[in-house]
Amino acid sequence: VLGSYLFAACAAGAVASAPLVLGAAGFTSAGIAASSIAANMMSAAAVANGGGVAAGSVVALFQSIGKDHK
Fold it and tell me: What's this protein's family per the entry (predicted)?
């Protein structure tokens, strides 16, 4: 039982900290920050996808989460 509570607490902490971590990586409410990890990920995704970032991709998901963080 204690393990279940510990797992739940860790999962809640990960969900709560995700916007902060993504913001630090460059996924901000103003868009993807220049010269950031996010910018490098977006560039790689665009190259791999023929010039655009696909809807539903990891980069799009992270940007969606980052834009909601104030």
Answer: Belongs to the IFI6/IFI27 family.
pLDDT of residue 14 exceeding 60: yes
Q: Which residues does 46 contact at the CB level (< 8 Å), separation at least 6?
A: 52, 53
Amino acid at 10: C
Q: Chain centroid to CA 44: how far?
A: 15
Show the domain range for 47. 2-67
- CA-only gyration radius of the chain, Å: 15
How far, in Å, CA of 46 to CA of 36, rounded?
15
Least confident of 16-25, 47-56, 61-70: 61-70
Chain position carrying tokens 């969606």? 64
